[in-house]
């Protein structure tokens, strides 16, 4: 799953181009490949999320609510 080809197969599957028409048509090796590929993909996504600074945690829920209300007012022309 570390190869570009392996990642491409997982991306194609996610995009609606599965390895088989039905899940029951997958071979055990295909199942293992997909499971490991999805796990690897999720792990990489989680690592990316953890690397990004999370600015929303620095604001209180009330501040976030105020920002949303302000944006709504501006869009509605209040």
Can you walk me through this structure?
This protein is mainly alpha-helical. Helices cover 65% and strands 0% of the residues. It contains 3 helices and no strands. The protein has helices at 4-14, 28-51, 61-76. The radius of gyration is 21 Å and the shape is elongated. The chain starts with a helix and ends with a helix. The model has no long low-confidence stretch (mean pLDDT 81).
Q: Name the overall outline.
A: elongated
Q: Helical residue percent?
A: 55-70%
Mean pLDDT: 81
| Tally of contiguous helical segments | 3
Largest beta-sheet details = none
Extended strand count: 0
Termini Cα gap: 52 Å
| Secondary structural class | mainly alpha
Strand proportion, as a percent range, falls in under 5%
User: Whole-number radius of gyration?
Assistant: 21 Å
Give the helices and strands as they follow along the chain.
HHH
Unreliable segments of 5+ consecutive residues: none
